[in-house]
């Protein structure tokens, strides 16, 4: 994680923590690297002064911090301390060393299927704990996932929605990041754990393609695509694409649960790990034209379950054994083209029935003529030729 020196206006001490570096800044406030007297390092966020004067924000902020305290397990950056009554409210979480998923992909390129599945399995398991605590992240995206040596950690959950501070152009229209927020967030409907599942699917697609499954564009364009268009998963590995499709279902009720995601991704990660050693795959350019067809309704989850299972019969099993990846069936209505067998070629590089046949006839004629001339010469030499 990039660190910057403290600026003149930055505080040096907040609560019992001494601040050392800037870790970042956003619409809500500034995040600092700090440490207590025992040397425990924390990421400490100090809220901007204009927000501190908003009593409604303070009350919502207090509820979110309370919810964060209830989360158990190592899936998130643990809340260490907070002061909700300070002139500028702040909270401190355990400092997580390591880059964000966004930075890793930006600097090193797209991840292999095995890596995406392993990170996804750990994240899905973490979301189970988050949702069991009664919290919905509402802004899950690659920059809010830190890749620590002990596994991925979810940060900045459940706070941005209360302030309208987001990457959207117009405050209040929706809260989240275009391309990663769910259709129900765009419509202003209630959020549920399924909302995080949609963002989770978009995050996995980003890890595999270095792009949102809804492409790029203005906020309005992105929000329209999220609600009305199918995602483009042309660069997502075959083993993961069906499951990602299911996560990105428009209807929240059609998406798989976090428990199902954790189990399926763990299976995929174990299977894909057997093929480690292949070079890192590059992001596949998105193709123009109609997007792939995806089953709608509650078939989406069944589609993911059916087509991510290991095949055990026929050519599919043989292919899976050799590639380590489960092929994704073509959408209904599309016929799989039969493999083309190239026509055999002669040593000269020409196909039978072409110029080689004519050349053979020419050589045969020349051979016959030469043979006849040779016989005539022999006959003359022996005096047998009529005079």
Automatic annotation (TrEMBL):
Please give the start and end residues of each transmembrane region.
364-385
According to the entry, every stretch annotated as the Protein kinase domain falls at 17-268
Q: Which CDD domains match?
A: STKc_PknB_like
Positions bound to ATP: 45
Q: Where is the composition biased (Basic and acidic residues)?
A: 272-284, 291-312
Region span, Disordered: 272-356
A molecular-function term among this protein's GO annotations: kinase activity
Output compositional bias ranges, type Pro residues. Answer: 328-345
Q: What keywords does the record list, in alphabetical order? A: ATP-binding, Kinase, Membrane, Nucleotide-binding, Transferase, Transmembrane, Transmembrane helix
Q: SMART domains from the entry?
A: S_TKc
Q: Which Pfam families does this one have?
A: Pkinase (PF00069)
Listed name of the protein: Protein kinase
């Amino acid at each position: 994680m990039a660190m910057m020196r403290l600026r003149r206006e930055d505080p040096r001490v907040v609560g019992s923590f001494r601040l050392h570096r800037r870790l970042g800044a956003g619409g809500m406030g500034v995040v600092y690297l700090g440490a207590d007297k025992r040397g425990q390092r924390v990421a400490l966020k100090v809220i901007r002064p204009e927000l501190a004067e908003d009593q409604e924000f303070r009350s919502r902020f207090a509820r979110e911090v309370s919810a964060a305290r209830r989360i158990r397990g190592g899936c998130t950056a643990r809340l260490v301390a907070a002061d909700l009554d300070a002139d500028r409210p702040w909270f401190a979480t355990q400092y997580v060393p390591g880059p964000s998923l966004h930075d890793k992909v930006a600097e090193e390129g797209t991840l292999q299927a095995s890596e995406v599945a392993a990170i996804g399995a750990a994240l899905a398991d973490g979301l189970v704990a988050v949702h069991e605590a009664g919290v919905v992240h509402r802004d899950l995206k690659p920059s809010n996932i830190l890749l620590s040596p002990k596994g991925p950690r979810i940060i900045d959950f459940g706070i941005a929605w209360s302030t309208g501070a987001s990457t959207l152009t117009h405050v209040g229209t929706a809260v989240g990041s275009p391309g990663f927020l769910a259709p129900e967030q765009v419509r202003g409907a209630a959020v549920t754990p399924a909302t995080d599942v949609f963002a989770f699917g978009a995050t996995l697609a980003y890890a595999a393609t270095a792009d949102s499954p809804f492409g790029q564009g203005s906020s309005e364009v992105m929000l329209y695509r999220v609600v009305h268009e199918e995602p483009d998963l042309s660069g997502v590995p075959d083993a993961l694409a069906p499951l990602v499709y299911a996560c990105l279902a428009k209807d929240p009720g059609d998406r798989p649960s976090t428990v199902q995601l954790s189990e399926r991704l763990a299976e995929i990660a174990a299977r894909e790990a057997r093929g480690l050693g292949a070079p890192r795959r590059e992001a596949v350019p998105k193709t123009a034209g109609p997007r792939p067809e995806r089953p709608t309704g509650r078939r989406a989850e069944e589609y993911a379950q059916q087509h991510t299972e290991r095949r055990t019969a026929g050519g599919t099993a043989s292919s899976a054994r050799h590639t380590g990846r489960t092929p994704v069936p073509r959408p209904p209505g599309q016929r799989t083209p039969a493999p083309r067998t190239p026509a055999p070629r002669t040593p000269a590089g020409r196909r039978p029935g072409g110029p080689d046949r004519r050349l053979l006839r020419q050589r045969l004629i020349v051979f016959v003529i030469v043979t006849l001339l040779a016989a005539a010469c022999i006959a003359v030499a022996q005096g047998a030729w009529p005079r």
